[in-house]
UniProtKB/TrEMBL annotation:
<keyword id="KW-0963">Cytoplasm</keyword>
<protein>
    <recommendedName>
        <fullName>Glutamate-1-semialdehyde 2,1-aminomutase</fullName>
        <ecNumber>5.4.3.8</ecNumber>
    </recommendedName>
</protein>
<dbReference type="GO" id="GO:0030170">
    <property type="term" value="F:pyridoxal phosphate binding"/>
</dbReference>
<dbReference type="InterPro" id="IPR004639">
    <property type="entry name" value="4pyrrol_synth_GluAld_NH2Trfase"/>
</dbReference>
<keyword id="KW-0663">Pyridoxal phosphate</keyword>
<dbReference type="GO" id="GO:0005737">
    <property type="term" value="C:cytoplasm"/>
</dbReference>
<dbReference type="InterPro" id="IPR015424">
    <property type="entry name" value="PyrdxlP-dep_Trfase"/>
</dbReference>
<feature type="coiled-coil region">
    <location>
        <begin position="317"/>
        <end position="344"/>
    </location>
</feature>
<comment type="pathway">
    <text>Porphyrin-containing compound metabolism; protoporphyrin-IX biosynthesis; 5-aminolevulinate from L-glutamyl-tRNA(Glu): step 2/2.</text>
</comment>
<dbReference type="InterPro" id="IPR015422">
    <property type="entry name" value="PyrdxlP-dep_Trfase_small"/>
</dbReference>
<comment type="similarity">
    <text>Belongs to the class-III pyridoxal-phosphate-dependent aminotransferase family. HemL subfamily.</text>
</comment>
<dbReference type="GO" id="GO:0008483">
    <property type="term" value="F:transaminase activity"/>
</dbReference>
<keyword id="KW-0175">Coiled coil</keyword>
<dbReference type="InterPro" id="IPR015421">
    <property type="entry name" value="PyrdxlP-dep_Trfase_major"/>
</dbReference>
<dbReference type="GO" id="GO:0042286">
    <property type="term" value="F:glutamate-1-semialdehyde 2,1-aminomutase activity"/>
</dbReference>
<feature type="modified residue" description="N6-(pyridoxal phosphate)lysine">
    <location>
        <position position="267"/>
    </location>
</feature>
<keyword id="KW-0627">Porphyrin biosynthesis</keyword>
Length: 431
C-alpha cells in the first residue's frame, strides 16, 4: 500500500499548519506514521488521495453515526445551501432542533446552539458559576471536555496521547479553581466536598469516558455523584458530546437513569458539520443572555447547514431506534472477535464495551480508571495501528480514543476487521 501523495501533502502541510494538521491526533504521531490524507468517503469507508480505501472506525470522531455521505441525510442540503449559508438572524430550523433535543432529553428544558463541543462545555461552566455564584469546579482525570483553559487540566484525548495532560500556556490563575478527581472513585469526590462543598459550582463529567479509550462508569459512582451535587447545590454537568444520541437516543443519562442539571452536546447533532450545544433546567438556562446576564454568543451559531444535517440525523435516529440495537450488536461482535483473538494469542489486552462504544486496550484488564489506562503499551498499539492500516482498516490513531461505529458498517466489514486484528495483534505482541 503506497502513500506517496499523502506524504507529499503532509510535507507541504507542515510548512503552513502546525504539525501539518488542524487537530493534533490527526498527525498519527503516536502511532509512528505520517497521516493519510482523505479524498472522499462513503458509507463505512474512507478513500485516501493515493486511492487506498479503509474501513473507517474514526467516523469523524463520532458525528457520523449514519456513515459517511449518507444519501438520505444529504438529500435537500443543496437547496438549503442555495438559500444562503448563514444569516446571523434566527431561522425556523433552530427552533425545530431545540425542540427535538429538549424532547429527547427530559433534563434539558432549554438549549443554546454553539459551534463546537469546546464552546459547549466552556459556556456551560460559565452559566453554572453564575447560577451558583461559586467559582470552583470539579473535573475527572482522563476526561476531555475540549480545549478551553479551565478544562485543559489532566485531560484526555490528544493531551493524554502526547503526554501533556495539562497544557502550557494556561495561566495558573485560570485553573486554580479546577479540582481534579479520580474517575469511578466516589471517595475522591466526597473528600473534596467534605472540605469545600459549599464552594463548588459544578461537577463536569463524561458519563461514559470516551477520551481515555472507553471507560464505562460504575452506576453507583454516577448515582452518588448525583446525590452529593444535589446535597450541596452544585450543578452536575454531563458532557455528552460523544455519548449524546450515540450511547442511546437519550444518551448516557437515559442508559443510567440519572438526570444531570446541564448537558453538553456536539458531534452527532451536527450530522458531520461543526456544532455544539449546551442546555439544562429552565431556571439555570434563564441565566443566559439576553434573558439573563451571562454572556455567550456566536456569529455562526445555529448555522442553517449544520442544523439541517443535525436535524435530519436526529430525526432518522428518533424514527429508527432499532439503529441503537444494530450498532450495539456490531460492537458486541467486534468485542467477541477481539476477545477470541486475545485468548488465542494469550496476550495481555482487554476490551471495554458499553452499548455501541468500545476500545481495545493494550494492557491487562480490568480497565476502570485513568491509572489503569496509563498502563497501556502505546508502542504496541502503534504497531497494531500500522498493521491494521496496511490491511485496509483505519483504527483511531491513538490508544486513548474509542472505536466509532455507524449503521453503514456491514457484517463483512466487522469480520474483515476481526481477522485483520488477529494478524496485527500477533505482530504487535511478537515485537
Ligand atoms: C466528551 C467531549 N467533550 C468535548 C469535546 C470537544 O468538542 P470539539 O472537538 O467539537 O470542540 C470532545 C471532542 O473533541 C469530547 O469528546
Ligand atoms: N477525542 C477527540 C474528541 O472526541 C478527538 C477529536 C480531536 O480532538 O481531533
Amino acid at each position: 500500500m503506497e502513500h506517496i501523495r499523502s506524504k507529499k501533502l503532509y510535507e507541504e502541510a507542515k510548512k503552513y499548519i502546525p504539525g501539518g494538521v488542524n487537530s493534533p491526533v490527526r498527525a498519527f504521531k503516536s502511532v509512528g506514521l505520517d497521516p493519510v490524507f482523505i479524498e472522499k468517503a462513503k458509507g463505512s469507508k474512507v478513500y485516501d488521495v493515493d486511492g487506498n480505501s479503509y474501513i473507517d472506525y474514526i467516523c469523524s470522531w463520532g458525528p457520523l453515526i449514519l456513515g459517511h455521505s449518507n444519501d438520505e441525510i444529504l438529500d435537500g442540503i443543496e437547496e438549503v445551501l442555495n438559500r444562503g449559508t448563514s444569516y446571523g438572524i434566527p431561522t425556523e430550523i433552530e427552533v425545530k432542533m431545540a425542540k427535538l433535543i429538549t424532547e429527547a432529553y427530559p433534563s434539558v428544558d432549554m438549549v443554546r446552539m454553539v459551534n463546537s463541543g469546546t464552546e459547549a462545555t466552556m459556556s456551560a461552566l460559565r452559566v453554572a458559576r453564575a447560577y451558583t455564584k461559586r467559582n470552583k469546579i470539579i473535573k475527572f482525570e482522563g476526561c476531555y471536555h475540549g480545549h478551553s483553559d479551565a478544562l485543559l487540566v489532566k485531560s484526555g484525548s490528544g493531551t493524554l496521547t502526547y503526554g501533556v495532560p495539562t497544557s502550557p500556556g494556561v495561566p495558573k490563575g485560570t485553573v486554580e479553581d479546577t479540582i481534579v478527581c479520580t474517575y469511578n472513585d466516589i471517595e475522591s469526590v466526597e473528600n473534596i466536598f467534605n472540605e469545600q462543598g459549599e464552594e463548588i459550582a459544578a461537577v463536569i463529567i463524561e458519563p461514559v469516558a470516551g477520551n481515555m479509550g472507553v471507560v464505562p462508569p460504575k452506576k453507583e459512582f454516577l448515582e452518588r455523584l448525583r446525590k452529593i451535587t444535589k446535597d450541596y447545590g452544585t450543578v452536575l454537568i454531563f458532557d455528552e458530546v460523544i455519548t449524546g444520541f450515540r450511547l442511546a437516543y437519550g444518551g448516557a443519562q437515559e442508559v443510567y437513569g440519572i438526570e444531570p442539571d446541564m448537558t453538553c452536546f456536539g458531534k452527532i447533532i451536527g450530522g458531520g458539520l461543526p456544532v455544539g450545544a449546551y442546555g439544562g433546567k429552565r431556571e439555570i438556562m434563564k441565566m443566559v443572555s439576553p434573558v439573563g446576564d451571562v454572556y455567550q454568543a456566536g456569529t455562526l451559531s445555529g448555522n442553517p447547514l449544520a442544523m439541517y444535517m443535525g436535524y435530519k440525523t436526529i430525526m432518522k435516529l428518533k424514527e429508527n431506534k432499532h439503529i441503537y440495537d444494530e450498532i450495539e450488536n456490531k460492537a458486541k461482535r467486534l468485542e467477541e472477535g477481539f476477545k477470541e483473538n486475545i485468548n488465542k494469542l494469550d496476550i495481555d489486552a482487554e476490551v471495554n464495551r458499553i452499548k455501541g462504544m468500545l476500545c481495545l486496550f493494550f494492557a491487562e484488564g480490568p480497565i476502570k480508571s485513568y491509572d489503569d489506562v496509563s498502563r497501556c503499551n502505546t508502542k504496541k498499539y502503534g504497531i497494531y495501528f500500522r498493521e491494521m492500516l496496511q490491511r485496509g482498516v483505519l483504527m483511531p490513531p491513538a490508544q486513548f480514543e474509542g472505536i466509532f461505529l455507524s449503521t453503514e458498517h456491514k457484517d463483512e466489514d466487522i469480520e474483515k476487521t476481526i481477522k485483520a486484528s488477529y494478524e496485527a495483534l500477533k505482530i504487535a505482541y511478537e515485537k
